[in-house]
Amino acid sequence: MGASKSVPTREHDFEDLAERTGFSLDQINNLHKRFQWLNNHQETLRREDFEKVSHLSLNPIRSQIIQAFFDRRNFGKGGVGLVDEIGFEEFLTVMSYFKPPNKKLTNEEAEAIRTNKLRFLFNMHDTDNDGTITLDEYRHLVEKLLSTCETLEEDTAKAIADAAMLEVAKITVVHMEPHEVYEGITFEQFQQILKGIEVERKMNIRFLQMDTTPMRCGK
After folding, report:
1. Which is nearest to 39 in space by CA: 53, 23, 55?
2. What distance in Å separates the CA atoms of residue 87 and residue 194, rounded to the nearest whole number?
3. pLDDT in tens, the chain (219 residues)
């Protein structure tokens, strides 16, 4: 399964992408250079191309970040499922989720951007696309985040994940009977958990600040 292989025809299409993503033309040109550096000047980008991002290799949720670039839910076109490769338009669309919001936005516009960013984060952890972040998905995330701590044993990491999920359940579920099973976090509950946290300003794209010197030297 492949992507739409959307390849901009430079200036005209870049202007259209700037309108849709909020990036300036200079930023789009810079990101296009990075896109070309990653895929050796091919038309599309594949998962293995992200191996060139050295900073990303140190991130414990590296696989979720990479998969987000190939998740149709993040392309803004109402799609579902994963693709094997993406064009520059899809790459830029996903990158726009990491773009700091414009300070001149109206309250309505700012809230729409926050909702989109939260949905992107939710999709990253709702790996089976069932509309909830389940205990297993949450446990997997916490275990990944704790994997850099060599002193923690596997059972301890699982216990921490379970305890964290129960704490979330207390916040999101008003009343639960002893026999009921907590199925997971819905998007609405996810929004509630992160209420008051400026997630939209904390998301960044530092992991793509790669060295493109070899590409420039070839010009």
Report:
1. 53
2. 32
3. 555 555 555 666 899 999 888 889 999 999 999 999 999 999 999 999 998 887 777 777 888 889 999 999 999 888 889 999 999 999 999 999 988 877 788 889 888 989 999 999 899 989 888 888 887 787 777 777 676 565 666 677 677 777 776 776 666 665 556 666 667 788 988 888 788 878 777 776 554 554 444 333 333
Tokens read off for 94:
């996903």
Residue with tokens 């300036």: 24
- For residue 71, the tally of other CB atoms under 10 A from its CB is 23
SS3 state of residue 64: helix
> From residue 64, how far is each of 105, 127, 156, 171 by CA, in Å?
30, 8, 23, 25
Gyration radius (Cα) of the chain, Å: 19
CA dist 173 and 182 (Å) reads 9
Residue 83 φ/ψ region, left for φ over 0, alpha for ψ in the -120 to 50 degree band, beta for the rest:
beta
The DSSP symbol for 207 reads: G
Residue 127, phi then psi, degrees to nearest 5? -70, -25
Please report, as a single letter, which amino acid is at residue 73: R
Tokens of 144: 């990944």
* pTM to 2 decimal places: 0.76
CA dist 102 and 141 (Å) reads 30
Amino acid at 98: F
